[in-house]
Design a protein that fits this description.
This protein has 385 residues and is an alpha/beta fold. It has 12 helices and 20 strands. It has 2 domains: 2-236, Metallo-beta-lactamase, Chain A (4-Layer Sandwich), CATH 3.60.15; 259-384, Oxidized Rhodanese, domain 1, CATH 3.40.250.10. The strands form 5 sheets. It has a 6-stranded mixed sheet with strand order 1-2-3-4-5-6, with helices on one face. It has a 5-stranded mixed sheet with strand order 7-8-9-10-13, with no helix packed on it. It has a 5-stranded mixed sheet with strand order 18-17-14-16-20, sandwiched between helices.
Length: 385
């Protein structure tokens, strides 16, 4: 069995291509399918199954589009009522993927109907070794998925389910089983940041994981819920979009925008987002633009702040930067920018008012006492003049 990891650092997530050298299962794919298809081509395998661990809250899934493109069987929790074609699966179900056996494990907590997938070799999985466990937003490295994203009145119940399901799963599988979470690499779907001490095995988690080192359920619930950080506002849009079924995305370049049209959009109150480095923006920018540096957290912070449905025009130094920003935004359901311009402010800001803004260093800021992660202030990556 081979496990290929497909990283999405901009969201702190991972997808997986699991194969036997001929056919493959894809777990929790993102919308930009070219990365998954390229990994399958490199491994010279055919994708026959796509599995979702849950209805995601931090990105729009590419699972439905991938299954339709490849003809793969699409696995989703049978308990979810979904309007598209899929194979509903539940606890204890077994799916054969070539020489691999996939056993479904119910792990509610992060969501009500969350599933994990235990994959082993040699047909029925008996005596085939520890295998690999794909845990989505359930068991994470050193932590577990947050439990407050479905509904406020379900948080206590889901936190208790998270505690019980993680412990039950650990007890039912070999200690040397390696596990592969989807969240937990900077994702706000994690209940806390941790995992530095994890060795990636179930046995190793017993001494480092929050759900396994706290022996009292009530104490676990209080500890987890009280420590939950803020989460991006755009998360409210993701589950409904995934429940409807994510559509294929169009990553072709956005329509070019000239300086005159750019100014019109600014005057209409639209979002014109400058992707340049924060220091470059602070030094010189077109009045009325919003500076959000194109870095790993770009889509997260833009999605956190923008009124949902607002048109977005992107400006940057290069066409490559525009393309990367567009890709990141598509992952969170902002499919097509209203337009784009490259060449820097001397090109797309020609003839228009320019400005600068003061900067400060982190050492000048007062410490926050809440421990909650929030969007950065002007000099820390986002600014508007």
């Amino acid at each position: 069995m081979n496990v290929e990891t497909i990283e999405t650092p901009s969201l702190g997530d991972r997808s997986y291509l699991v194969h036997d050298g001929e056919v493959a299962l894809v777990v929790d794919p993102q919308r930009d399918l070219d990365r998954v298809l390229s990994a399958a081509d490199d491994a010279m395998v055919a994708i026959t199954h796509v599995a979702e661990t849950h209805l995601h809250n931090d990105y729009v899934s590419g699972g439905l589009a991938l299954s339709r493109r490849t003809g793969a069987t699409y696995l989703h929790a049978a308990a979810e009522v979904l309007p598209f074609d899929h194979r509903g699966v539940g606890d204890g179900d077994v799916i054969e993927v070539g020489s691999l056996t996939v056993r479904v494990v119910a792990t509610p907590g992060h969501t009500q109907h969350h599933l994990s997938y235990h994959v082993t070799e040699n047909g029925d999985g008996k005596g085939a070794g520890a295998g690999a466990l794909f845990t989505g937003g359930s068991l994470l490295y050193g932590s577990v998925g947050r439990t407050d994203l479905v509904a406020a009145d379900l948080t206590d119940t889901l936190t208790r389910l998270q505690y019980r399901s993680v412990r039950g799963m650990i007890d039912s599988l070999p200690g040397d089983t390696r596990f592969y979470p989807t969240h937990g690499f900077g994702s706000f779907c994690s209940s806390s940041q941790g995992g530095d001490d994890s060795d990636g095995t179930l046995a190793g988690e017993r001494s480092v994981n929050l759900a396994l080192t706290i022996e009292d359920e009530d104490t676990f619930v209080e500890r987890l819920v009280s420590g939950l950080p803020d989460h991006p506002a755009y998360y409210a849009q993701m589950s409904p979009m995934n429940r409807a079924g994510g559509i294929p995305i169009d990553l072709s370049p956005a329509a070019p925008v000239d300086p005159t049209e750019l100014l019109r959009r600014i005057h209409r109150g639209e979002w014109v987002v400058d992707l340049r480095n924060r220091r470059a923006y602070a030094t010189d920018h077109l009045v009325g633009t919003i500076g959000i540096e194109l870095d790993d957290p770009f889509a997260t912070y833009l999605g956190w702040l923008i009124p949902w449905g607002t048109a977005v025009t992107l400006v940057a130094d290069t066409a490559e930067e525009l393309a990367e920003a567009q890709r990141q935004l598509a992952r969170i359901g902002i499919d097509r920018p209203a337009g784009g311009a490259d060449g820097g402010p001397d090109v797309w800001g020609e003839g228009h008012d320019r400005a600068s803004c003061p900067t400060i260093t982190y050492s000048c800021t007062a410490p926050r006492d809440s421990g909650r992660r929030s969007p950065p202030a002007c000099s820390h990556g986002l600014a508007r003049t």
